[in-house]
Amino acid sequence: MKIRVGYELIYDCPQPTPMILSLNVHFSRASDLIIPDHLITEPSVPVTAYRDRFGNWCTRIVAPKGQIRLTADALVNDTGETDPVVPGAKQIPVQELPDETLEFLLGSRYCETDRLSDIAWGLFDKSPTGWGRVQAICDYVNRNISFGYQHARATKTAWEVFHEQTGVCRDYAHLAIAFCRCMNIPARYCTGYLGDIGMPPPYETMDFAGWFEAYLDGKWYTFDPRNNTPRIGRVLIARGCDAADVAISNTFGPNTLKSFKVWTDQVFDG
Q1: Gene3D superfamilies given for it (predicted)?
Q2: Residue 84 belongs to a domain
Q3: Number of structural domains, the chain?
Q4: Helix (H/G/I), strand (E/B), else coil: 210
């Protein structure tokens, strides 16, 4: 299967503004790129790149005064298979977890494990360990949080999502991640492209999607409490402790996002 992915972002800056962008397809999918997702800026500005501590590709630019258009348009090979489901995947005791997973047991900017620990144990202590417990967490979040873009705000945390019972995909992921960590299951935030491939209409306006991965039986597995069903065509951009680590843009000066478009569509040969 081939998937066309891309974006167009238009910013208006009242002065030259440094930016860090996390928009490139994750290096783990590099071999799947038929047409690379090279960043194009209008007007043209110097572009440099680096890898952050999670291995994500990041781009540095200085946006000039006025409007700047950022765009990329890529073609990706995909297996066409749904997210794996492995009900027998077991939970690993904390003392046996690899060192590199321990960071994803701790509280973070949007995932307050200290505030949610007693709640999590009250809700999920009787659920089966391993895959069954992560799925129970996803079922709870999916069932109890109402989706709506009007509920989105940049400062919203898992604790606030739990009490307000509203949010967008990143809020679903943050609450599920916090619950997993409270239950001693490493969990990390993911952002990327996720279209409606294989799903019945009506189709929503495209956006970047948020989901998470839980560490079970020595592997990281995808979970998506917003949709709560295995999906086709997930294309990873970045991973981190939570959304603070994978923001599509960090801007160091006043600016206005004038336009925001994302696409992810299956491409049929012929």
Answers
A1: 2.60.40.2250, 3.10.620.30
A2: no
A3: 2
A4: strand
Instruction: Say if residue 109 is in the same domain as residue 239.
Output: yes
**Residues 180, 60: one domain?**
no
Q: How far apart are CA 79 and CA 233, in angstroms?
A: 8
Q: Which two tokens stand for residue 120?
A: 């999590």
DSSP letters for 14-54: SS-EEEEE--SPPGGGGGGEEE----EEES----EEEE-TT
> Does residue 65 belong to any structural domain of this protein?
yes
Maximum pairwise Cα distance, the chain: 57
Residue 38 CB partners (closer than 8 Å, separation 6+): 72
151 DSSP 8-state letter: G
Asked if 162 and 100 sit in the same domain, the reply is yes
- What pLDDT, in 10s, does the model give residues 97-132? 999 999 999 999 999 999 999 999 999 999 999 999
Tokens read off for 259: 């336009």
CATH of the domain at 221: 3.10.620.30
Kindly report the CATH number assigned to the domain that includes residue 18: 2.60.40.2250
What would the two tokens of residue 132 be? Answer: 């069954």
Q: 178-212 burial, b for 16+ CB within 10 Å, e for fewer?
A: bbbbbbebbbbbbbbbbbbbeeeeeeeebbbbbbb
Q: Could you tell me if 114 and 222 lie in one domain?
A: yes
**Contacts with 159 (C-beta within 8 Å, 6 or more apart), sequence order:** 112, 115, 116, 178
Query: How confident is the model over 194-249, as pLDDT tens digits?
Result: 999 988 877 777 889 999 999 999 999 999 999 999 999 999 999 999 999 999 99
